[in-house]
Protein 1
Amino acid sequence: MRLIIKNLVTVALLLLGTTGYATAQAQPDAPAVQTPPAVLVADDVEITTDRRLIARGNVEAFQGTTRLSAQAIEYNSDTGTLTITGPIVINDGAGIVILASQAELSEDLQDGLLKGARLVLHEQLQLASVQMNRVGGRYTQLYKTAATSCRVCENDPRPPLWQIRAKRVVHDREERQLYFDGAQLRVRNIPILYFPRLRLPDPTLARATGFLFPEIRSNSRLGTGLRIPYFIKLGDHRDLTLTPYLTGKTRTLEFRYRQAFKRGRIILQGAYSDDDLQPNDRRGYFFAAGEFALNRGYILEFDLESVSDDAYLNDYGFFGRDRLDSSIQVSRTRRDEYIKLSYVNFKSLRDDEDDDLLPSDVIDVLYERRFHPSLIGGEVRLSAAAHGHERPSNVNFDANGDGIVDGRDVLRFNFEAEWIRTYQLGGLQVQTDLGLAGDIIRVSDDITFDEDSGIAPKVGVTLRYPLVRRSKNGVRQFFEPLVQLSWVGGDGLNVPNEESTRVEFDEGNLLSLSRFPAPDRRERGWAVAYGGTWARIDPNGWTATLTAAQVLREEAQADFNDTSGLSGTTSDFLLAGKIELDGGFAMSGRTLFNESFDVAKAEIRGAWSNNQIYVGGSYIWISEDTDIDLPSPIGEVTFDGAYKIDRFWTANANWRYDLEEGRAATAGAGIAYSNECVRVGLSINRSFADSTTLEPSTTLGLSVSLRGFSVNTGDRVETRSCGKRAK
C-alpha cells in the first residue's frame, strides 16, 4: 500500500529544503527568496538512528517543477547527498528528462554522478552515455555518448538510422548548446564524418550561430557543387546567413540579412558570383524589402531590386522573373479614408524590351474619402489622384514605326465625386449611382499630343431581384438576375493610351461605369449590362456558382481591343463558374465568347486531393490580338501533383506545356523521405527557355536535414514504431 506519512513530509522539508532557507536567513537585508520545499512519497520509509532517510518502492520526490522517480532513495544528512537506485527518471518540467540506472546526487538534484544515463531533450533528441555528471544544475557532462533523434527500440540489434558518437558531450542548459569532443557522424553505424570539435544547438533553441545543413546541387550549365549555409546570430532581433556555393564553374556567395525593429522589419538578400558563363564580368543581384509603422497610422513599405545582367536570376534559379520592380510606398487605411503615395521603377529582363523605351519611373498619389450624410442618405465618395510616368529616352518621334513615341512621358490628374444609395422595394433592390469626374492629362516628348482635359458626368441604376430557396436537408439555392442602365457624358480626351492597354471583362467590373483599368480614359455614352448569378450551397455535399453576363452599348469604344471581350457595341458573353465536391475536388473557370462561339479568352483551374494524393492543373487560352502586340495565340497547360507513397515517402511533379510552341516550358519532379529524425529530398528541374540571354538548363538537388537540433514547429511528423504501427 502507498504510504504518505506526515512526519516523513516534515523530515523531507527539513532535510531537503534547508539550503534555500539558510540562504535567506544569512542575508537578512536581501529579499526572501526561498527554495521550494521537497515532498517525498514511497511505499516504505525508514529513518535510521544516524539520521539517514531511506525510501523504498515506487519512490517519487518533488521539488518545484522537478520530479524524480526511482526504486529507492537514501539521504545522508551529514554529506547532503542522495544515493538513488534505478530505474531513475528525472524530469525538470522544462523539456529535459534524464534516465539512469544508478545515481549519487546533491540534495537539490543539481550536482552529482549518474551511471547508465540517458538525456532526452524536448522529446526530440536523446543522448545515451556510460556516465553522466551534473554540475551546478547548468552543465551536464556525458561520457562515451551516442546522440540521435531516431527512435531506438528495445531489444532491437539494428543501430539507429543516424547517430553522433562522441568521447564527451557537454550540455549547457543556460546557453542551450551541445558541445561534442571527438564526434563521429554515423549512418547505420558506418562512420561518415569526423569532427574534433562540434557545437550544435539543443532542440529548445530557436536561433544559434553555426552551419546549417548543406545541399548538393548539380546544374547542366554551372556544374555540380555544394551549398553550405552559415547562420550568424547578431542579437535577439537580427541575423545574417552566408551561403557559399562552389562548383567547377562558379564561385558564388549568397547572403541574407534580417532585422526586426520595434515598429517594423527589413530583409536584405543577394548574391555575388564569379563564373565561367560570363568570365569577364562580376555577376550578382541585390533585393531589399521592409515595412515600418509610422506615426498617425501611416505604413512605409519599400522593395528594392537590382541585378547585374538579364540572365543571372535564371542561370542560378533564384527567381522566375522577367521584370524587376523597385518601389517605395507610404499609405494609411482607415474606415472612411485611404491615402497612398508610391514610386515604382521598372527594369525589364526580356530580350525584346528596351528599358529606355519603357515607362520606367512611375509616381502615384491617391486620396479617397467617404461620407454617410444623414440628410440625403446613402454614401458619398470623393477621390483625387495624380499619376506620372517617364521614359529615360528623350527622342520625340516614332523610331520603331509601331505608333509608340520613344520618349513619351505622361502626367495626369483625376478628381471624382460619387453618390451611391440603395433602395429596397419589396424583393427588388435598386441602387443608384450619380457622379462627376474631371481629368487633366499632359503629354510631353511627343509632338503628336500635348494636353487635354475634360469633365465626365455619370449616372447608373442597377436592379437586382435575389431569390433564395431552402431545402429540408440544409441545401440552399440562390438566383439573382440583374440589369444596369448607365450613362457617362463628356468627350474622350485626345491623349495616347498609355495605361489601359490591357482590359479584362470579368465579374469584378461587370457593373462598373468604366471598365478601363486606369482613369486615363473612360467609357462614354449609354450602356446596358445584364446577367445573373446562380449558386447552390450544401454544407454536406457539392457547392457551385455560375455567372453569365453581357454588355450592350449605344456606341463602340475605340480603345477596347478584341481580346478584352468589350469591343464593338455588343460585348462577348461572359461565363464564369466554380464547383466544389465533397470528395476534395474543386474547379473554377472563366471564358469570353461571341455569338459565333469564337473564344477570345478562357481559363480553367482545378485541383483534387485526399489524404494520399494531390493533383492540380490549369488551362489558359488567349487568341491573337495585334492591338496588344500579340501576333499569335497563347495557350498553356500546367500540372502539379504530389503522391504520399506511405507514411514516410512523398513524390511530387510539376509540368508547364506551351501549346502554341508545341513543347514543354518547364518540368520538374522530386521525392522526399521524412521521419522523426531525418528528411532527405531529391529533385530535378528542367527549364526549356531559349533566347539570346537564356539557355535551357537542368538542375539536380539533394538535401539532407537531421531533425532534433531545431525547435519543434508543430508540423506533423511520422514516427517509426517498435513492433506496432504508430498512430
Protein 2
Amino acid sequence: MFDIQEELKKLPGQPGVYIMHDEADNIIYVGKAINLRNRVRSYFRANIGRGPQIDKMVSLIARFEYIVTDSELEALVLENNLIKEHSPKYNTLLKDDKTYPYIKVTMGEEYPRVLFSRMMKKDHSKYFGPYTSAAAVKDTIELINKLYQLRTCNRNLPKDCGNDRACLNYHIKQCLAPCQGNISKEAYAENVKKALDFLNGSYQATLKELEKKMQQASDDLEFEEAIRYRDLYNSVKQIASKQKITDSDGEDKDVIALASDENDAVVQVFFVRGGKLIGREHFYMTHVSQTPRGQILLDFVKQFYAGTPFIPRELMLQEEIEDVEVIEQWLTKRKGARVYIRVPKIGSKEKLVELAAKNAHLVLSQDKERIRREEGRTIGAAKEIGHLLGLNDVSRMEAYDISNISGFANVGSMVVYEKGKPKRSDYRKFRIKSVTGPDDYACMKEVLTRRFTHGMEEKKELAEKEMDNEFGSFTKFPDLIMMDGGKGQVNIALSVLAELGINIPVCGMVKDDNHRTRGLYFENQEIPIERDSEGFKLITRIQDEAHRFAIEYHRSLRSKSQVKSVLDEIPGVGPARRKALMKHFKSIEEIKSADVETLAKVPEIPEHIAKGIYEFFRKEE
C-alpha cells in the first residue's frame, strides 16, 4: 500500500522529474523540479489558490514516483521525453504530427547536390528552412537545378566518373554531367556557390545573368533558348516577390503568440529566416482548461523545440514564461550556439508578435466550428454508436468482411477505426487456409480465430517478459466488433470469442434488400438508426471500407493467379522468366502470338525454352 504522507518525507531536495499515477496506475501528470521535496509536497498542502484543474488532478493521485537528475536542465529533457511518451491527461500537450521540409545542399560531397529533406543531420551539409510547404520546396529545388544544372543522381563522384553514360537530365540541359567529366570541379563549385547565394535570398545576380542570356539568345535567333531563359527569369522573379522582409538584422527567429478560450488554445508561429518571413504555422494545444497563458507558452516551447531539428537564434514570445534561463540553456545546447528568448514591448518586433497573436485568434475562431464538425463525425459518431448499443466507451472498433468469387481465393479483411477515424496501420488481410468453396461463415470463423488467438499469444509473451506496453494491431483488442451482416455473422463471432474466453461486444451491420445499411443487430434484436445521423454515416463508412479492403485484396490475388495459371504451367518458366516475359511483351496475347525467334530475343529466355513456350500455346489451340 502506497502511503503518500510517508513517501513525501522521503523526497530528496534535488532536481528531478516526478510522475503522478492514478488508481489504475495510469500516468496522469509529469513535472520537473529544481527541488523535488519542495515541489511535490506543494501539491498536497491545503488549497493555496492553485485552481480547480490542479485540485482535480491531486484528488486522483494514488501514488507518485520520481527520478533524480544532476541538474534542472537534465530534468527538463527527461520531462519532455516522458510527456511525449505517455501523453498524461493533466499535462498541456502539443497536438502536432508535422515534420517540416528543408532544402539540403550536400557540401560534404565533391560534387554537391540540392535535395529535399525532412530532417537535419550533422553531415557537413548546409540546410535551408524549415519551410511550411513541401510543394514550394520541391519547386524551388527544381528551379535551382534548371538554373545551375547541378546533378541529382546518387553516383559516387569522382570515383564513378565515366562508368556509365549520362542520364536524361544532361540531354535536356538540366545537368552538366560531371559524371562524364564535362565540367571541372572548380566550375561546378562556382555553380554551387550561385545556388547557395540564391537560397540565401540573393536573386539580383541570377536575374541579371538570365536577362543577359535571354537577350543574347534572341539576338542569335535561338528563340527556343530565349524562351527557356525567359521562363527561368519569370520563375526567379516570382520566388523573389514572395519573400517579405520583416527585419533588417537578417537573423533567424521564431515569433510565437497564442489565443485561448475555456477549452482550446492555438499557438501561431512565424518563421523568420535570414530576416525574411518564409512561412507561418499554427498548432493546437490540448488539456488547457484554466491553464495560465504563460504556462501554455512554456509547454509549447518545451515540446515543440524538443522535436524540431532547427533552433533559431531568437524566440520572440507574446509574454513572459517561467524558467527562461534553463530553457535558453537547453536550446543553446541543442543548437550549438547561443539562443535568446525575448518578449518585445515596443517597435516593429512587438508589432510582429501582435500580428502573430491576431492570426492565432483568427485561426481559433474560424476553426472552432470546423473542429466541432470534425469531432461530430468522428468521436461524436463513435459515442453515438456506443449510446445506441448501451456501451460506455467505444473508442476502437474492428470490422470484418469476406470476399470470394464462387469460393475462389477466399480472403478476409480486418479494418480498424479509432475515435471514429480509420487506423490503416492496423488493417490486416487474411488468406483463408481451411475453407474451400463459398462458405462465408466458415471463413469468418477462421479469420476471427486467427486474429484473437494471435492477439492472446502476443499478450502472453508480453506478460512473460514483464512488459506492459502493447505492440501490433493484434495485441490491442477492440471495444466493439462490427460484422458485415446480421444474426448469422454475429453468432459466428460470439462463438469464437466464447471458445477463446474473450468478452467483447459484437454487433452486425444489417443491410436492406437494396444492399444499403439500415441498422445494427445487437443482443438478438435489430436496432434502427436515423439515416441522417453521424453514427449512421460512420457505420456506412466502416462497412464500405471493410468491403473495399477485402475486394482489393481478392482482386490482387486473382490477377496474380491468372498470370501464374498460364505461364507457370510451361516447363522451364519460373517466376523470373515469367516476369521477364511480361515485361517484354506486356500481355499474354502477345506471348501467344510470338514466334520462337521473337521469344528468344528476351535475354532471360534461351532458345530451347522459347521453343517450349511456342509449342505450349500451339497445343492449347
Protein 3
Amino acid sequence: MRTWGLACVLVATLAGCGDDKPNNGDVTPDAPDVEEPDAAEPDAAPAPPLRNAVALEDAALAVEALRVMGGPVANSAENSCRNCHSLTRQQLSYWRALSDTALASCLTDLAVGSKDSALTMLGCLRAKNTPTSDFQTQKLGIYSAAAHLPWFQHTFQIAYGDTAATELARFGAEVGMPREGLPLLTQEQFDIIAEWFARGLPYLEDTLPDDPPPQTCQPGVSAAVGAHVAAMETQGWRALNRMNQMAMFGCGAETDPKNCLQTQVIVDGQEFGEGWDMPGLGHWRQLANVEYETAFWTRSSPDGRFVGHGVRDMNVAGSLILDLQRGAHRVVIEAQYDPNWFPDNSGFVFQGGNRNVCGQSVLTSNPDVITTNEAACARISSVGLYEHVGRALDGGDYFSIDGEFISDDGGHSPTHHDPFASFGSNARLLFTPLLWTGTRYAARTPIQLATPFEGDSVLSPSARLVISRVEGPGAEQLGFVLRKVNATPTGMTYDIDIPEVARYCISGGKPAFSYDERWVVFHRYVTNADAIDLGFTGPNDPGFLPYREQGAANVFLMELATGEITRISNVHPGQYALFPHFRSDGWIYADVRDPGAGREYMVASDAALLLE
C-alpha cells in the first residue's frame, strides 16, 4: 500500500488520472496525540508554513515551476502533472483562479489560531459545509498538491485531535493528487509552484508555447475578481460620475437611479411588449420607437442621453445618434458603425467616417448633422473596428482595444444561433492609449498582445478588465474569459500584461460592463436548449414552435464575482432584444428588433438596480 500524495496540480472537474479511482493508501500524520480544547494551547507548536517564499527572479521561477510540473522545458519531471493534464496557458490560468479563491475564501488563517478556525477552513473545502460532505479539489486549486505536507497535517490535528488521521486519510482519498503511482511533491517543490502562482504566473506566455485549440471549458473565478468589484464600488466610474454630479437623462432632481425614467412608458402594458418583464426584476421602459432598421450594435453615452447605431436604410447617409433629451431627435453622423463612449462622458468613437474619435462637445452643441470633420474630431488609425474604450481612474490616459471579431447583426430575419467564435491561434488584442490634448484625442504607441482563440473583446470602463468570447470545437463559443489589465507607463506608451482571472462557461453575444464593473450584460439567441427555461416542456412542445420558426433573443445579466446569470427579458417569438449595455447609473439600455412589426424599440431596464 503506497502513501498518497499530490504531485499532479489537479483541480476538480478534470477527467483522467484516475479521477474515478479512490486513493486507498494509508496516511499516518507525524503529529502528537493531544487533548484538544476549543482553541489551540498557548504553548502549542506553531503551524508550519503552507508554503515558503522563493527568491528566484520571475523568469527563472517560471522555468523551474514548469520543470517540476513536467512542462515543456529542459530536464522537466517525467512523472508529474503532465501525466494527467495538458499544461496549457488556459489550464494554468484556470488553476490560478481556483488557487487565489482558495486563499481568499477558505485558507484564511494560515497560523491556525484555534480549533474553530481549523474546522472553519476545512469545512470551507467541502462541497457543503457539513462534517460528512465530500472535500472538493476545486476548493483548493494548486493547494491540493500540498495535502500531504506538514501544514495540512497540523491543521487536521488541531481540528480533529484523536480522529485526525482518519479525517486526513479521507481528505487524501477525495482530493489527493496524483490518484495512483506518481511521486509526491516535496515541500521545496511545492514552494516553487506555489510561489509562481502567488505572483500571478509571470512569464507564462513567454515560457509556454501557444495553446492548442481548446476543447472544453472549465469555470473558475479568482478572488481577484471579487476584490476588483469591491474596489470599483467606491472607486469606479459609476461612483466617480455620481460624485461629479453627472446629469443623467430622465432623472431630473432624483438622486436614486431607481426613481429615474419614470415617465417612460412601461412596455409590458403595450401589445408589442406584453410579458417582457421578468418577475421581481423591474420593468422594461420604452425610450424611443424606431421606424427604420438599425445595423450592427447600439451603444449609448454614460449619461444615457445619446443612443447611437448604424442604419440599414439606404436613404440615410451614414448612421444616427438619437438625442433623447430632444425627444429622440435624429442626429445624422457621417460614419457607419461601432459607436462607443468614453466612461467620463468626454467623447465618443464612431467608425467608418473621415475621422473616428470626437469630443463630446460635438454632440452637446445640439447639431442636426455631424460630419466628423469638426475641430474636436481626430482620425486615429490604430483604433480599429469593433473597438471598446475606457479610461484610467486616476485621471490618466484613455484606452481603446480592438482585435478579432465576429459581426453580429442578427434579428433582421430568423436567427437561431449565437455568433460563431472562429478566432484562431494567432488572435491578437491591440491596446491604443489615447491622450486628450485639450482640443482632441491623440494616440500613443499601441501595444499588441497575444490572445489565442479569443475575440470580440470588451474593455471595462476603468480599463482594468477585458472580457472576451472563447473559441471551441467547430468554432462554437466555449465561454467567456476575463482578464485583468496591468498597465505600467513606459515612455510614450505602456507595458501591459493581461493574466486570466476568470472563465465563465456560457454562450452569448458580445457583452458590456456595468460602470461599477460588478456585472456584464449580453444577449443570447433562443435555441432548443432554452425551451425549458422559457416555460415549455422541451423543444418539441407545440408552444415552443414559434420560437423555433421565428427565432428570438433575450437579455442576460452575469455577476462577475460569482458567474451567476439571470435572464431579464422574456420577448415574444420573432423579437430580438440585442446589444444591451449599461449607462453610468446602472440602467440597462437595449435595442429590440421586431421585423414582423417593421420597427425597433430602444428600451431601458432597471433589473440590475433591483439586484443590488
